[in-house]
Amino acid sequence: MTTPGLPLRQLLMSLGEPLVELQTAPHGLDVPVRDVAILDPEDPPTAAAGELVLAIGARGRAALPALRAAGRAGAAAVAVKLDAPGQADALREAATEAGVALLSVRRETRWEHLDSLARAIIAGPDAPDAPGAPEHNAGDLFSLAQTVAVLTNGIVSIEDTSSRVLAYSRSSDSDEVDDLRRLSILGWQGPEPYLSKLREWGVFQHLRSTDTVIAVDPHPELGLRRRLAIGIRTGAQPLGTIWVQEGARPLAPLAEQALVGAARVAAAQLVRRRRELSADVRLTQTLLTGLLEGSTGPQSLATHLGLDVRRPATVLAYSAGTTEQLNRAEVTGLISVHTAARHRAALLAPIESRVYVLLPELPANLPLATVRGWAHEVVAAARDHLGVPLRAAIGSTVDGLVRVPDSRAQADRILDAMGRGGVDLEVAALIDVQAEVLVSEVLALLQERGGLRDPRLTALTAYDRRHGTRLAESVLAWLDALGEVRVAADALHIHPNTLRYRVRRAEQLTGIDLAQPQQRLLAMLQLRLPADS
To answer: Where does the pLDDT of residue 179 fall: very low under 50, low under 70, confident under 90, or very high at 90 and above?
Structure first.
């Protein structure tokens, strides 16, 4: 009898990015993995259906026969080590053609460690010697909250370290619930005026630094009833808090003891939850980054998250001008929260100095003004709350996830143009800055390819550097003003006669004839390049 196997998704989430990285999954992430096979380089390439094939010793292109054999046999995936980044492209193409998932393994990973870990994961948490097998099932956090409520005669909420409500107990009588409890449940987070009072009374400091229960006296003037609280911790690391509010009945005599036990159970649950969520987030980030960069197709991400690949999508790109600003967790968190509030399925990926937001499954004919408004909200919040001057670019709305790289490329073009100056906008789509984008790209081409430049104009900027003059700047101002001397002179804060002299001097030194339209056009472009380029 064939075993059902473990979905590839679950195996990847359990192994995690430190060991393996998904390169491609042509049949999605629900293919079952039933066993692990080690393929020695001296053996003929063979595989069996549902196997994870560890191609030991077959680095780079040497793994192509193993991929083809695995595809013919219906294997679930092949794991290889890469000698160089460029090898992944050929192997991804071969794996896609063979119809088998490709995993890359970190060079420092020991094959025997990966083999034993993968086998234990496939066997499941209840198997003997499985790593991390739980001793018992403590139930979910809502069940725990209800259990604590029964043991304490109180009304319970379990919160994370940011005072966000993770779970709470049921209450049969709404009159028992005080304002802090009511507002916390409605908003899934404690309201700031109450939280500031708790900070002022030293409650949070106690919960972060000790494992003991703290009692908070009632404050009728604030709408607060008596409550007990205890921190949820693993070692010295705080994970959250359990709160018990007194209702119509007094709290049970052993309420504090019940809270101590509940905090320990909750710690085990939150640690497991963090590991699972972290693995899922890493896998989602890997698939999303691959889609944005065009290195992986959309099907793996769509299968993992249950997305419709045919629905419209748009990419937003954010830049703060400096990598340090944009890499701050507060900024990416702010972008994530604001965007998720507007679009439930929004996905975020920081790549180098930018943060990209994919908006999948958009409604047909969603107005550009709507997306522009979402981006403006993020930019304003970053400026007002974090003091970070974000710029945002809106990529084209494409007709499916397969064209997401096109939307991302357009957003990058817009941000590139905004970064080079001349665009006085915080949020822009291509329609807002099309001329600036195209000129920016022409300038980038001129900067990259010196053979396209007029050597006489290059000599003019070099002359300015040697002699401390401003001839090139003056010529450009005159050209931008369409030959209106007074307008250009005012922009430079000089006398019109001074400007006329500088333009004539530039023509004499270089031999250019600014009466010729082609030379004026090239000068308007080339003189916009940085003086030292």
So the answer is: low
What is the distance between the alpha carbons of residues 320 and 301, in angstroms, rounded to a whole number? 28
CA distance linking residue 35 with residue 395, whole number of Å: 43
Q: Which of residues 532 and 45 earns the better pLDDT score?
A: 45
Burial of 501 (0-12, 13-18, 19+ CB in 10 A): middle
pLDDT one-digit tens code per residue, 431-471: 888 877 777 767 777 777 877 887 888 888 888 888 888 98
Cα atoms in the 13 Å half-sphere on the side-chain side of 430: 14
Per-residue pLDDT of 201-216, as tens digits, reads 888 889 888 889 999 8
Max intra-chain CA distance, the chain: 98
Is residue 314 within 8 Å of 395, Cβ to Cβ?
Answer: yes
Average pLDDT on 260-288 reads 79
In whole angstroms, give the CA distance from residue 98 to residue 75. 10
Residue written as token pair 């649950």 = 269
User: pTM of the full predicted structure?
Assistant: 0.53
DSSP state letters, 378-442: HHHHIIIII----EEEEPPPBSSGGGHHHHHHHHHHHHHHHHTS----SEEEHHHHHHHHHHHHH
- Judge whether 224 and 200 are in contact, CB under 8 Å: no
CB count within 10 Å of CB 58 equals: 21
Number of CB atoms found within 10 A of residue 209's CB: 12
C-alpha span between 466 and 472 (Å, rounded):
13
Q: Are strands 354-359 and 214-216 parallel, antiparallel or unpaired?
A: unpaired
